[in-house]
Amino acid sequence: MTTDPKSDGGVAQSPNQPFGLPRWVIGIVPILLLGLVIGGFVATTPLAGVDGGEPLPDVSIDYTTLPNDDTIRLHVTNNAPEPVTISQVHVDEANWQFEMTGAGGDRTLEPLESATIEIPYSWMEGYDYGVTVVADNGATFGTTIVAANSSPGLTGQVVWTLAVIGVLIGIVPIALGIMWFPFMQTMSEKWLNAVLAFSAGVLGYLVFDGGFEAFETAQSVPSGYSGPLLVVLGISGAWLLLQAVTDWLTDDEEESRLSLAYSAALGIGLHNLAEGLAIGAAFATGRTSLGMFLIIGFMIHNVTEGPVIVAPLADGNRPSLAHFVAFGLLAGSPAILGGWIGVSTRSPLLNTLFLAIGVGALLQVVFDIGDIVRRSGSIRAAPNVMGFAIGLLFMYATGLFTL
Amino acid sequence: MSSDRQESDSAIHEDDAGTVTRGLEERLVDSVKNHDGVSRRAVLGGLAIAGGSAIAGTGATRSDDDTGDSNDETMGFGAPGTYTEEQFDPHGFLREFNTGDSTNERPSRFGENDYNLNAGVYEENGQTVREFNFVAVPVEQEILPGITFPMWTFNGQVPGPTIRVEEGDLVRVNFTNGFPDMAHTIHPHLRNLNPRMDGIPQNGPGLIDSGESFTYEWQAQPVGTHLYHCHMLPLKAHVHRGMYGSMIVDPKPENVRENPRQYIDYHGPITDEVREMAAERARSRNMISHADYSPEGFDGIDEMVMVMNGFDTNFDGDNEVYGVNTRGFCYAPARTDAYNGEWEAGETKHPIEIDGNERQRVHLLNTIEFDFVNSFHCHSQFFDYYDAGTTLFPNRKTIDTVLMCQAQRGILEFDYSNHEPGLYMFHAHQSEFAELGWMSFFEVN
Question: Which residues from chain B sit within 8 angstroms of residue A137, using beta carbons?
């Protein structure tokens, strides 16, 4: 490659001195000009003739909680570019007293500001309640509390229950799954590749499962935060970041497989965090009847996640047992943490972000497994394709138990 | 709680005496533990006596327990806050009657828009003319604390000014449309003999466009409490946005004495007694537009105008705010402590004060949009009802609730002379309307 200046038939320019000016000056010129144009635009207001009217107020009731039987709590966000004042509150088409906290002591929400509205209302269990906030210009924003049920908050009892559920659906099945490792070590390379492809199928299923879930919860993210785009950012951001970190950390084959196992554990952990969030959110809304059936369903569904983590390691030397313990904890315990977070903050924003990050992490692992399989065979070999398909199908089938 | 107590009082056995005493002790200590004036020792001392009587089954334990339910929580119902915008005073509007008398100064609330509503009372061709100036202007008016509504108004207020005339008068209304970009009319609910004066698009001047003026002339008949409103299309919008008001036509006692059948819904013989009774009722109805009929003042009658209306603040075809005279809860206490029955009047939200010795006459109009009917119900009270106010004897006697279709109106008469002083509620008996603002109180003194 030559660095000699080339002539396009016009005046020859030094690449270091365009127009005879220092490079940084030329670099900054477009920015200065942009500032000038924006300044001129603001100063001359060329759009003054276009009277588009004021932007419409847009307040969302992100979620509601019922901390006790005398209180309804609304969590609201202003999604509009202008401040909005909440002047009145209706419960079932009746004006009601309320206290608003979190908006700086008044009832005015700045753009993207959130607040809590507490209504002293004696609700009855199992009834539906229509709640509406009324802005100072009379615009209304409402939601329905379906089959009212007390939201317990983070009490000791709830912490304990969620921990038990988390252990049962997170740590136990993954630990059991990891115990397939010695068996996998006895497998031929061909069949191990098929198992890896099966893992990729399992993870691919989780990518779609979590992805759809993320886009679904994104619907309840305050519209000012553009929920669906947040999902896209979360997925691609987590994926690229994990890819960069694993590439940077590992250069030899052995270590690269270990880090892949950790990536898989992390991805599955984030997925289980999201599962925990969902369970915690169910607790927070008072939907606490997670039956035995559901828990058993989750256990069967998640037992595949163990071999998925350790499959990349089956081909080489067995790493120390401490690593296996770490896999189990990394992949399984977030279910407990998710439950706690889910029950204490029912933020759709956090929920969506966790889900998206989990999907990104899983996606990275799927592609890494693809690399491993490709190194020792063909992705399109029949056992591998079948393995992948069976992974997808198996997850779909066991997923039916967790509806 | 009281049922518990009755049970324990009636079903006492010797063995249970200790349990009963302990239960009573707990309850009483519970109930007074936050009460500064009572020491724990005093309570326990008192319990020995209370427990003793419980064993004896006398039921005397009822005495000290009443503090049990006391707490300072405010029941959550109602619109928090008080009104801030002062451009319309529903308390002032309640008792404001405009007879055209220009010497009767009206407080200017709307600046340039409020020019000389009462333009004069004079004779013309042997007929009394009462002249008014109306101007249509858009204003923002507060309808619940903190919530304003973009109104289309007559003279900058909703409801529009109440005009009060005598039967047989000529009502002359100089109407100017002060809107920048919208046409309006005034349509009177009167027996109007000239179609040009009906105030509809298809007749006479039709729509009065922005900046234009027109003088409507109406015959004041029949006697009663009537309505005027804008008849521009879309009709729903122009009525809902506030272009309405009341017009009261008072009866002349001499006309009533001459031809009583025209004024009373009564089919028996017209005796002198009936004739005089009807004339006296006419005099009592006509003390404001014709002060001569009440030489000694208003003779113990307190008259009020209540226009039942509602506002669809989010324009979805359903009202979010209901009230009389435009504001939700405007004649209600500013703060109530539902558990202790205590209340506070506020500066802008307070009950209607009335003199228990005066007879109350409410001119009630229904201008609700988007709901078929509205109603008026008063607590601990029954009233006589005169449909449209066109008769001098009540159409319905001794009722406590009246139902009204859109544009229906009537006169309610009642008194609180036998009632103890205090708060008496009145409200729409559509519970939804009541809970969304159409709920108010009389404070009887």
Answer: 147-148, 313
Chain B residues within an 8 Å CB radius of A135: 147
Over residues B354-385, the pLDDT tens digits come to 999 999 999 999 999 999 999 999 999 999 99
ipTM above 0.90, yes or no: no
Contact A97/B328, CB-based, under 8 Å? no
For A138, name the nearest residue in chain B, comparing CA atoms only: B313
How many of the other CB atoms lie within 10 Å of CB of A84? 26
Residues of chain A with confidence (pLDDT) below 70: 1-16, 48-52, 249-254, 285-294, 402-403
Q: What is the rounded distance in angstroms from the CA atom of residue B205 to the CA atom of residue A102?
A: 57
pLDDT higher for B131 or B36?
A: B131
Listing DSSP states for A112-141 in one string gives T-EEEEEEE----TT--EEEEEEETTS-EE
DSSP designation for A401 = G
Determine whether the interchain pair B436/A107 forms a contact, defined as Cβ–Cβ distance below 8 Å.
no
Q: Is A2 helix (H, G, I), strand (E, B) or coil?
A: coil
The residue type found at A187 is: M
C-beta atoms of B79 and A134 within 8 A:
no
Compute φ and ψ for B27, nearest 5 degrees: -65, -45
List phi, psi (to 5°) of B377. -135, 130
End-to-end CA distance of chain B: 35
In order of A174, A363, B293, B335, the CA distances from A313 in angstroms are 16, 19, 108, 72
CA distance A249 to A274: 27
Burial class (CB in 10 A: 0-12, 13-18, 19+), A30: exposed
Would strands B422-427 and B439-444 be described as parallel, antiparallel, or unpaired? antiparallel
CA A229 to chain centre: 12
What pLDDT score does B285 carry? 93
For residue A95, the chain B residues in CB contact (below 8 A) are: 77-79, 144, 328-329, 435-437
Distance, in Å, from the CA atom of A46 to the CA atom of B94, rounded to the nearest integer, reads: 50
